[in-house]
Design goal:
Elements (H helix, E strand, L loop, with lengths): L3 H12 L4 H10 L11 H17 L19 E6 L7 H17 L5 E6 L4 H7 L15 H18 L1 H10 L5 H11 L3 H13 L7 H8 L7 H9 L7 H10 L6 H8 L3 H8 L8 E2 L20 E2 L3
Parallel strand pairs: 1-2, 3-4
Helix pairs in contact: 1-3, 2-3, 3-4, 4-5, 6-8, 6-9, 9-10, 13-14
Protein name: NACHT domain-containing protein
Organism: Candolleomyces eurysporus
Length: 312
């Protein structure tokens, strides 16, 4: 996070040229801004990002969010922070979120928005559960339709220019078959990145002497590559009391438990179950009611373990 504010300021100056003199003035007044770790992240964000943006918004002529034009009421600019949870600096992440919230508290009408994507981490979730933040879970927004459209489009495009595929289709009929396509989409399991990698391997891998038709069944045996994610996430709490009992019970259960029922079964306290699970929400969804959401039965658990529901 020590380079985050400087990086953000650099990108803003490239998009909103009017901020350049204000950012340059900040760098002149505070030379330590370019030395990582010299000044706090909160101060860096304030003088390199927030204050230059406010200065431009309040300047004349009005700031325009559309190239080549001005508007008295510009649409908000959008800053996208993708994968915030991937940063290991928890304190820095917390300071970043607090700085954003403080900024919007002081300037509620500012034409700026932040779009943050992250796995659920306790130190992030706690700070974002405030009225000014709109939270949405992607668990209810499956990507299967998008992946199917992508896979079909890529195979169709390649079939139009690859003479080997054309010759195969002429001799054997459509390729891939509907069954092969469905198997591939099912194997991708909603991971667009994994799906993209598989399609590239099948259609465009060179130098292995295989045809796309040869590589398709091989692709169906490839691991989605999530083992590392689970290992890393579980390692955070594997030393906690009752970790093995809680995780093994969840893993072996055929249906989801409520937190209280799981605690009763293991003869431990409810807070001890939550202590194990609270930092595992990137792989276990702990919901806030006793009810198991409709439509999210065991088929929803296509990776490791079922959903859990915590008492309200």
């Amino acid at each position: 996070m020590v380079r985050f504010a400087v990086t953000l300021a650099s990108q803003i100056s490239a998009v909103i040229l009017e901020t350049v003199p204000f950012i340059e003035a900040a760098l002149t007044s505070h030379p330590g801004l370019l030395k990582p770790g010299t000044l706090s992240l909160e101060f860096q964000l304030k003088v390199l990002v927030f204050e230059p943006f406010i200065a431009v918004v309040n300047s004349s002529p009005p700031l325009s969010s559309s190239p080549g034009g001005t508007s008295p009421t510009p649409l908000p600019f959008l800053i996208v922070i993708d994968g915030l949870d991937e940063c290991e600096d928890k304190e820095g992440m917390e300071m970043f979120i607090d700085s954003i919230l403080n900024f919007f508290r002081d300037y509620p009408a500012v034409p700026l928005r932040f779009f943050i994507t992250t796995r659920i981490e306790q130190h992030i979730q706690y700070r974002l559960e405030v009225s000014k933040v709109i939270l949405d879970s992607l668990d209810h927004h499956g990507s299967e339709d998008d992946i199917q459209m992508f896979v079909e489009a890529e195979f169709e495009r390649e079939a139009k220019r690859n003479r080997v595929i054309q010759a195969y289709i002429q001799e054997h009929g459509n390729w891939p078959t509907a069954n092969h396509r469905d198997e591939l989409i099912d194997h991708i399991k909603g991971s667009f990145i994994f799906g993209s990698a598989l399609v590239k391997y099948i259609l465009w891998n060179k130098g292995d002497g295989l045809t796309p038709m040869d590589r398709l069944p091989l692709a169906l045996e490839m691991n989605p590559g999530l083992d590392g994610l689970y290992t890393q996430t579980l390692a955070r709490v594997e030393h906690f009391p009752h970790f093995m009992d809680v995780i093994s019970t969840i893993t072996l259960s055929k249906s989801p438990f409520s937190i209280s029922n799981l605690a009763q079964l293991l003869r431990i306290k409810t807070f001890e179950v939550l202590h194990v699970l609270v930092d595992l929400q990137s792989i276990i969804q702990v919901c806030q009611t006793y009810e198991f959401p409709a439509g999210l039965g065991p088929s929803f658990i296509n990776l490791l373990i079922p959903q859990l529901c915590a008492p309200t």
